[in-house]
Amino acid sequence: MKNFITVGTRLAVAALIAAASSTAVQAAECAFRPNAPDQHKVVRGDTLWDISGKFLEHPWCWPQVWGMNRDEIANPHWIYPGQIVYFDRKTGRLSLNKPGEGTADDRLSPRMRTEGVGADAISSIPSGAIEPFLTMPLIVDDKQLDSAPRIAAHEDGHVYLAKGDKVYVRGALDGGTSYQVFRPGTPLRDPDTNKVIAYEAVYLGTVALQSAARAGVDVHTFTVSGSAQEMGVGDRLVAAPPTPLRNYVPHAPARATSARILGIYSGGSFAGQNQVVSVNRGTLDGLDIGAVLQLYHKGQTIADPGGNKGFLGMQKTMIKLPDEQVGSLFIFRVFKNVSYGLIMQATQPVQTGDVAASPE
């Protein structure tokens, strides 16, 4: 939800219409559970998603029922173990103040802590499940492969490179000093077009620049600073990413999105709750960090057993079955054509080819 500062009657009327529309969306998407409790005491290990799920039919829309805008919840680390979340049935909001106490403004938004913010605060989602995915490249495309610096040689006699070993790298560093090493891995094919839209990178470790190439030398000298798998000649370098965002604000995608599951990161044919999957939509399609999608098994097209027609009833009539909702997906890392999401709920196993669409 965005805030607009308007001038003039026409813009004021437009803002009121937008507010009314927003209220209607909230009523449709953020219904409270019929058996919602009056309160919940926060305990260590809770997440905002878990707490909201005790009160709401759709846990992802907790920002709306706190009565907060996107700027106010850019850092959602404001709930701590020991606090009590109240359901104010009169206002239809959640609050950290008991209904009837404090001002109206106090009831509509949680009380902020100014000291030690975030030190013990609960997280938005179970962040431990996605930590390994936040600092690795994961996705590379052809252009990145062509332009990325590569390991051209390493110290003689070192079959397996370990921390402290030297490697020699060719290619433009563009001022970087810390790099991750990866190897192109599994091609990701769009289930709709069967075209390769990206490659999943195999993370090998990290290297740090020791000395840049100087006159008469064709390579930069690096030192291995960490090793996850064996790296060697031909492996590629990508600049280490900035400190990843770990505070997540769940929201519907900015525009209607319909994606398909590309793959299950852990391998295997099926995925369940707290597992990571990739989808064939990214920033070019309007997805961003925190977007929530509903998961569906794609409805099959089958022959109608009672719809035979043609000569002697030999020609079958085909019918399309509806997509069946099986869970929800929280997008936590986004690339140009591909995104990674954490399965938050799953009533049935999720598989490659399943649909991931904007919440209805």
In short:
The protein is mostly beta strands and about 350 residues long. It has helices at about 10-30, 50-55, 60-65, 105-110, 140-145, and strands at about 40, 85-90, 95, 140, 150-155, 165-170, 180-190, 195-210, 220-225, 235-240, 260-265, 270, 275-280, 290-295, 300-310, 315-320, 325-335, 340-345, 350, 355.
Give the distance, in angstroms, between the N- and C-terminal Cα atoms. Answer: 17 Å
Task: Return residue spans where pLDDT drops below 50 for at least 5 consecutive residues.
Answer: 1-28, 103-117
Mean pLDDT over the full residue set: 77
Structural shape: flat
Determine the number of helices (DSSP H or I, runs of at least 4 residues): 5
- Could you give a short account of the major beta sheet? 7 strands, antiparallel
How large, in whole angstroms, is the Cα Rg?
Answer: 25 Å
Oligomer: single chain
Number of domains: 3
How many strand segments?
A: 20
Question: What structural class do helix, strand and pairing data support?
Answer: mainly beta
> Strand percentage, roughly?
25-35%
The helix/strand series, from N terminus to C terminus, equals HEHHEEHEHEEEEEEEEEEEEEEEE
The share of residues in helices is 10-25%
